[in-house]
């Protein structure tokens, strides 16, 4: 059995990560949460802060960072379409599998996404920056979103500054991460460095890190908290299951945690999670709250 320093980060196996993420995503109803927030809060939380000046003929230029399979980002785009009938959307997503799912989603929802032109960049953010520099691209964006995608950076502040610098005047940066008050954040704090590797420097970043950075820069922002409970009952099922193992892997950010972690670390982790999860009858729920940081320029 391996100790915490020898365990493999879940990001090192893209297929395994996607399986764990998609299961976690389903059990937390992330798409439903985003849909409800966009319908109820987007008009009051976001739109008044977006003060770009473009003509009716000009498209709104948007950038999605780590857009994944596109469902969450598309809810945002649908709201923007209500005010801006033409959108030029640039998608930066390194995963070929998730990019493919995003394209499938677009094809299946053409009526709802009418007016959006997509530009696909299957790149890491660092690679996208390098490509822009090589091409001499100095274009700006009116709206940039990073939805649960800024967890793996050695220097998070550097990339927040980079994204803020890509905004046009009157534009808006929206960053969504796990809330600092969430169970996920408390797990990372209780087991620091567990998911870190040289190749994938897991920062354990939360919405509090985003707020702190812009506080230091003296840049105004607004924080919004979204309640997102996750049904994690399968983690404590009497009979072991692939789904239960995948959920533990996603929470710990370790591949096959139960099989590869030492007995001592397994006991500590399961004890921590049992204390962290809230029991409702025979179900166990995890506080997966999101923090949304809205930064106008």
Total strand count, please? Answer: 10
Spans with pLDDT under 50 lasting ≥5 residues? none
- Mind telling me the C-alpha Rg? 19 Å
Please summarize the sheet with the most strands: 7 strands, mixed
Beta content comes to: 15-25%
H/E element order: HHEHEHEHEHEHHEEHHHEEE
Q: Helix fraction?
A: 40-55%
Total number of helical segments?
11
**Morphology:** globular
Which strand order spans the largest sheet, edge to edge or round the barrel?
3-2-1-4-5-10-6
Mean model confidence by pLDDT = 90
The separation of the N and C termini measures: 50 Å
Secondary structure class reads: alpha/beta
Question: How does this model look, in words?
Answer:
The protein starts with 13 loop residues before the first helix and ends with a strand. The protein has helices at residues 14-27, 30-45, 71-81, 96-108, 125-135, 156-165, 183-190, 207-217, 242-252, 257-260, 263-276, and strands at 60-65, 87-92, 116-121, 141-147, 167-178, 222-226, 229-231, 278-280, 283-287, 290-296. The chain is an alpha/beta fold and 297 residues long. The model has no long low-confidence stretch (mean pLDDT 90). Helix 1 (14-27) crosses helix 9 (242-252). The chain is globular, with a radius of gyration of 19 Å.
């Amino acid at each position: 059995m391996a100790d915490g320093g020898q365990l493999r980060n879940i990001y090192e196996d893209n297929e395994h990560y996607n399986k764990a993420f998609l299961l976690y995503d389903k059990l937390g109803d992330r798409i439903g949460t985003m849909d409800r927030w966009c319908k109820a809060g987007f008009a009051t939380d976001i739109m008044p802060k977006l003060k770009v000046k473009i003509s009716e003929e000009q498209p709104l230029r948007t950038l999605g960072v780590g857009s994944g399979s596109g469902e969450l980002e598309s809810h945002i785009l649908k709201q923007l379409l209500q005010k801006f009938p033409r959108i030029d959307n640039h998608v930066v997503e390194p995963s070929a599998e998730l990019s493919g799912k995003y394209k499938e989603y677009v094809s299946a929802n053409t009526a709802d996404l009418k007016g959006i032109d997509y530009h696909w960049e299957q790149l890491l953010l660092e690679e996208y920056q390098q490509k822009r520099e090589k091409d001499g691209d100095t274009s700006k964006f009116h709206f940039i979103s990073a939805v649960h995608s800024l967890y793996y950076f050695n220097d998070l502040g550097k990339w927040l500054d980079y994204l803020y610098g890509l905004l046009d005047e009157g534009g808006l940066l929206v960053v969504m991460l796990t809330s600092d008050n969430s169970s996920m954040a408390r797990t990372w704090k209780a087991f620091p460095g567990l998911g870190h590797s040289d190749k994938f420097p897991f920062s354990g970043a939360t919405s509090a890190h985003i707020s702190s950075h812009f506080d230091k820069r003296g840049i105004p922002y607004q924080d919004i908290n979204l309640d997102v409970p996750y049904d994690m009952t399968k983690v404590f099922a009497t009979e072991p299951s692939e789904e239960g193992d995948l959920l533990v892997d996603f929470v710990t950010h370790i591949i096959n945690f139960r099989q590869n972690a030492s007995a001592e670390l397994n006991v500590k982790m399961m004890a921590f999670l049992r204390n962290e999860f809230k029991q409702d009858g025979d179900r166990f729920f995890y506080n997966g709250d999101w923090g949304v940081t809205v930064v106008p320029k």
